[in-house]
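Quick entry between incubations.
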Amino acid sequence: MSYSDADAHHGDHDHHGPAPGLMRWVTTTNHKDIGTLYLWFSLIMFFIGGGMALIIRAELWAPGIQIVDPMFFNSMTTMHAIVMIFGVVMPAFVGLANWMIPMMLGAPDMALPRLNNWSFWIMPFAFTIMLSTLFMDSGGPAGGWTMYPPLVLQMGDSFAYVIFAIHFMGISSVMGSINIVATIFNMRAPGMTLMQMPMFVWTWLITAFLLIATIPVFAGAVTMLLTDRFFETSFFSAAGGGDPVMYQHIFWFFGHPEVYILILPAFGIISHIIPTFSRKQLFGYDSMVYATASIAFLSFIVWAHHMFTTGMPLAAELFFMFSTMMISVPTGVKVFNWVSTMWRGSMTFETPMLFAIGFVIMFTIGGLSGLMLAITPADIQYHDTYFVVAHFHYVLVPGAIYSLMAACYFWIPKWTGNMYDEKLGRMHFWISTIFVNVLFFPMHFVGLAGMPRRIPDYSLQFADWNAIATIGAFGFGFSQLMFVYIIFKCIKGGEKATGEVWEGARGLEWTVDSPAPYHTFEDSPTITPETITR
Amino acid sequence: MISEQALAPDSVRFIVQGNQSMSWRANCWLAAFLGVFIMGIALALASQGLWLVIPFAGAEVLFVLYCLYLTVKRLARKEVITVATDAVKLEWGETQPDRQVELPRHWSRLSYHCPDSEFEVGVLEVSAHGRRYSLGRALGRAEKRTLYNKLKVWLP
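Done. Structure below.
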């Protein structure tokens, strides 16, 4: 269309169109493009990290060393964790934040679009460096993702690459978080107060604060490891007057909030899906916000529950035990609110809702085993066993990963303009749910019976449950190929989605067309009771 | 956002600005909170001998300050278009104009061109005597068209 009253030949500086071809993706500053890049990156990393998990489970199929040597097995456990935490769950949530936060707030884009581009493009470089260590002479990191000294300091020269990659990941996370904070505070649509923001925005705001607060601590910790390894310092070397346990304190001061960084955005996603498919407003919006903030606050004062076996004064053990148990209160509030939202709702069970309900049930199982681990005398028995592995995988796989699957099914019609194949989606859910439980539930049994984690060989008594877990792992892993197929099928075509997509959907993102236009909210949207989610 | 002020029967002023949902002052409080929190953690760890956290925390605080400053500065930037009896006055700035241009009203021409592509937000310009100035840079496609329609009443 053209409204020219005079020719405009010199206005190309004002064009906002993307570069042609592949350069569109390299130079893009559009929040939707960057969100898409993050989501594809995390999907690719999901299969890389998943492949590592299958190597681990294949080795554990039977007692004895059979497929990989122990050093490589340890590299796999370490890399699997690093890839899944920093390369899958975090980037996927950042991708969702990029796509949805500006649309939920009625903002045209993120506050700092160029920074946004940088924060994404640092990630592939960081992970290329990280994964390349597996092909170096001294091998990849094998001391666990926690990188405890003095074990990790025995690593070869590739250790420097690992630390370099971790710094890049941290820089990317900090950039993304600052952008999110700046966007949420400064770019809300006129009339949208903080207590009218969608829950996903609230949970991401709190997550961004956690990241901003903890990443410098982690950066400092790994740099001290680097100087201990290469520059003769003794921050964590007892021989030089340092304290290796101090590293554990500083690591978990970052590491425990990191756990909530991985789950708070999931809480936000579930708080959108359950009301939509229950056709009710979220029960207890205010309490949800306060519970999220409480969890974030408590995450800073519970770190030493990861270290009960290092030896601690009794008062400290009691403090960390009770503070950890207190987290179950705001978490319980959330579960109660989700269940209350469903109560007497006109529920339907589309794929996002199935994944959301699966999340609530299985995350609660992971939460309950977490509560068991919080009890100091019990934890001393469970420590470093497969019970711990079962606990955090229940929280992260049917927890964080399920919320990501739910989010993809929930919002993909808005992204592509097409509905996904509902029948295949439901099949994906049921197959995943069966296999994820076959995979992780037996780990409780072998853990309680004393099977240690991060060991490629094990006692004969654990053989049966390990074989079952391996079957579950391969079933779950290969069922995710269905997810990829469903996504591609949806991108390629399918039933056209309306703007609202779901009957009970509320929020500004549903007021725009499907697929969402490249530039949304060119006119500031009007906030009405129908467009706010609370 | 576009706000319109009638100055006289034959003159009008349009103020164009991005939507800013938090004030300078509130942003300062946010920056101060983050700074104190991050540096508090860093200093506590430094007191235990882990001083290498301080440079990272310090760099991050500076980066947070810069990003918030940049965001607020961009959002606070205004474009004031005054159509007076004989002149079209364009001013850009935050609280005070840092750039001003005056064009003769009766020689000024308005142009708006927007290709039929979802990627484009369009180009709105005012020109006179071979000089062209882009208008509504903080606006999206629909708002830019609105500004064009409003200005068209006053300019040929």
